[in-house]
Amino acid sequence: MAPTQGPRAPLEFGGRRGSATAAARHHVPPAPGGPVRGPARLLGPPASLPGLEALWSPRALLLWLSWLGLQAALYLLPARKVAEGQELKDKSRLRYPINGFQALVLTALLVGLGMSAGLPLGALPEMLLPLAFVATLTAFIFSLFLYMKAQVAPVSALAPGGNSGNPIYDFFLGRELNPRICFFDFKYFCELRPGLIGWVLINLALLMKEAELQGSPSLAMWLVNGFQLLYVGDALWHEEAILTTMDITHDGFGFMLAFGDIAWVPFTYSLQAQFLLHHPQPLGLPMASVICLINAIGYYIFRGANSQKNTFRKNPSDPRVAGLETISTATGRKLLVSGWWGMVRHPNYLGDLIMALAWSLPCGVSHLLPYFYLLYFTALLVHREARDERQCLQKYGLAWQEYCRRVPYRIMPYIY
Ligand SMILES: NC(=O)C1=CN([C@@H]2O[C@H](COP(=O)(O)OP(=O)(O)OC[C@H]3O[C@@H](n4cnc5c(N)ncnc54)[C@H](OP(=O)(O)O)[C@@H]3O)[C@@H](O)[C@H]2O)C=CC1
Ligand SMILES: CC(C)=CCC[C@@H](C)[C@H]1CC=C2C3=C(CC[C@@]21C)[C@@]1(C)CC[C@H](O)C(C)(C)[C@@H]1CC3
Q1: Are residues 141 and 279 in the same domain?
Q2: Which of 3, 159, 324, 365 could form a disulfide with 177 if both were Cys (CB 3.0 to 4.6 A apart)?
Q3: pLDDT at 345
Q4: Helix and strand tally (H, E) in the chain?
Q5: Which one of 239, 246, 248, 272 would you pick to mutate in the ligand 1 pocket, going by the greatest count of ligand atoms within 8 A of its CB?
Q6: 395 with 293, same domain?
Q7: Quick one: pLDDT at residue 44?
Q8: What is d(CA 247, CA 254) in angstroms, rounded to the nearest whole number?
Q9: For the region Disordered, what residue ranges are annotated (predicted)?
Q10: Are both 289 and 348 inside the same structural domain?
């Protein structure tokens, strides 16, 4: 048993057994490697699996480390603003550079320059499998470093659940809340930079490869690229908003988040574009317009709900939210009960799920793979919502019960 620092918190994610099983099961699904293209089949024998030798490539390792180095360098560039995080246990607040969107633009410029100098971006799709492997390996090694770093951290620096005393659970869920070296905040960096920007770069490479193979990218590929670029651009544009999310304010930084941020996001969130490269889908303009409308509705709800809560949490008397109805809580903070947050208790999740549907539809309905994100994301958000409800009930007690009475649905009005 590892030594514990301070009192132990109740375990989440199925406790020790749950985190051990999940740690053992985590692997990135194989990315398409070869140039095979054709209709997708849901039934029938699986294509032959790549051998172990297909996982390891020193070139992929070099590329991956250069990518992490580039994103770290962009993080350290002067920022347009430095924001303060939520108040910590010891009453202090951490400071965070707001330059994520700048990193996205500079990365795009560098990639554009590279391509005009002959960088073969279309070769990236063939390296996805070894890249996913080295990303998983780095996430694992990095999590070991985080675990060891947390052993010497003061109790006040640990996450609420980061002190179980069980090494596997603590390694998986993370011990320290905001591990940093000087101004470099590892969790904040990983959550928004290498994975998210890497995701849209992989999408772009898949689009280029498709253009190489068939003369021009398909409409379906354009839509998937456009929607997901909007999502990533939006996250980086509203970078400061991440400082009030559960990941930053509550969860420790361990293998689950490190792996999720740098390996899971880029290589599985790009599955729709990967699928389209190998299984081109015909898509007419009328259907494309309907899909764009679905994405626009999802984005409108997602952005509206997230911005409304952020504005309210930053300044409840801001004219944009001052007229909304609220419930007072014993902590002095208030809860919104009208506007987006009066419709369901997690309107932002609803918008996110509607967008997830719009990202899958361009891939047609011949295979389940493009719907993997939608299914996984539904499970993730249902679980996340339950965790958040538990925390809010603990934090706000009777006021939260009153909120649940007035806004009875969690994510989907009249359904859930
Ligand atoms: N694409 C992906 O893979 C993922 C995307 N997401 C997205 O990230 C975004 C952030 O999600 P997440 O961090 O889970 O949580 P939220 O942004 O929904 O934040 C939940 C917190 O909001 C506050 N809150 C809840 N209800 C109210 C209310 N009525 N009035 C005011 N404040 C309220 C509470 O905190 P407090 O009162 O302390 O402020 C609560 O803990 C979402 O849009 C989600 O869809 C999340 C996970 C994965
Ligand atoms: C399967 C596995 C290991 C899951 C780990 C979960 C993580 C992949 C997600 C937890 C919360 C996330 C958020 C985003 C990406 C996925 C992870 C890291 C996010 C950065 C996506 C863009 C959004 O606009 C966001 C900034 C609101 C969001 C924050 C949460």
Answers
A1: yes
A2: 159
A3: 97
A4: 16, 6
A5: 246
A6: yes
A7: 57
A8: 11
A9: 1-39
A10: yes
Pocket test for ligand 1, best of 303, 309, 343 (most atoms within 8 A of CB): 309
Question: Which residue, by CA, sits nearest to atom 21 of ligand 2?
Answer: 235
CA dist., res. 41 & res. 32, Å (int): 15
Taking CA atoms only, the protein residue closest to ligand 1 atom 41 is 388
Same-domain check for residues 175 and 202: yes
The tokens for 109 are 């410029």
What is the number of domains present in the chain? 2
Among residues 226, 257, 283, the one where a domain terminates is 283
Q: 12-34: per-residue pLDDT in tens?
A: 655 555 554 444 444 444 444 44
State the pTM of this model. 0.89
Q: What is the pLDDT of residues 71-85, one digit of tens each?
A: 999 999 998 899 988
ipTM over 0.90: yes
Domain enclosing residue 108, as ranges: 100-283
**Same domain, residue pair 374 and 256:** no
Q: How many CA atoms lie within 13 A of 89 on its CB side?
A: 11
At 244 the pLDDT is: 85
Site residues for ligand 2, CB cut-off 6 Å = 191-192, 196, 234-235, 242, 245, 247, 256, 259-261, 264-265
Which tokens sit at 305?
């709900």
CA 196 to ligand 2 center in whole angstroms: 9
Site residues for ligand 1, CB cut-off 6 Å = 244-246, 302, 306, 309, 312-313, 333, 335-336, 341, 346, 348-349, 352, 380, 384, 388, 391-392
Are residues 244 and 372 both part of a single domain? no
Q: What pLDDT does residue 86 have?
A: 84
- Which stretches in the chain have pLDDT values below 70? 1-47
